[in-house]
Amino acid sequence: MGMALVGCATVAWGQAAGHDVSNWLERIQKAAASQTYEGTMMFSAGGVVSSSRVAHICNGRERYERIEVLDGQVRKQFRHNGSLLTVWPQSRVAVVEHHDPIADFPALPAGTQRALDSYEVRPIGIDRVAGHEAQVLMLKPRDGHRFAQRLWAERESGLLLRADIVGPRGEVLESSSFTDLAIGGKLNADSVIGPMKKLDGYRVVRPQSVRTQLEVEGWTLGRPVPGFQLVSCHKRPLDPVADGLSGEQVLQAVFSDGLTHVSVFIERFDAQRHRPMRTVLGAAHTLMSRQGDWWITVVGDVPMATVQQFESLIQRRQ
Fold it and tell me: In what order do the strands lie in the sheet with 119-129?
């Protein structure tokens, strides 16, 4: 990949509508919500590659999105503002729920300005992704609690075209990118609203996700993990497709440093299902362990040491 020299990029940076580094992060975040675009996204991690076709429509204050997974079992998602519909045509199951609080590519988490406390951000060049000219940003962590990230932002709109998570030796652990993309134009919102209304023949499941607090549920984080703040806490059915009929619940607490997330899942321990383990797939590190009558799962695109820190700090209140 041939990026322009950093010196040239610095000149271009100053010409990029007067936006400094911190404003670019804000532009990326806003563009994911406010731009209309359509294209194909590819995700790769640990030798696993998947792709999706996405259309995002912005019409005033209304937001619509259609995502079709192109690999494996057929799965489609339709979003209208805060409502999310996931359908599995082969099994004829449709799940209706509130929009997941975790931001997915090409979005960044809310509060991206906080990322400047944990990352040093600098422009490193000009590049092209999916036929669009992009400003490339390098976000270098200020400590060992997180990985570096490299972002490609479309220079006119600010839309994120590619995002790499980079390991300590400069290796790409995980990458999300557009392989083709059209920005702007007019897309038909009926392609989202129509399928959300036509669910005849589907078993419609509406799992209830309840916003709560760690302390209310009897849990606490012994002390903060540097740079990370609790951004959401929900309790929901363990198996959403079962529509909560089993009564089993899982608590999910999401922590963010403004650029990446760590999720902590807490559920009742089940000796038949649960075995302690650690897994790594690309940048995603997962740790599962027992704490008394409870089963703790911590997962995030962060080093295993950070995952271990969350696991050791989450405590049942006395």
Answer: 119-129, 132-141, 148-154, 160-166, 172-183, 37-45, 48-59, 62-69, 75-80, 83-88, 93-98, 203-205
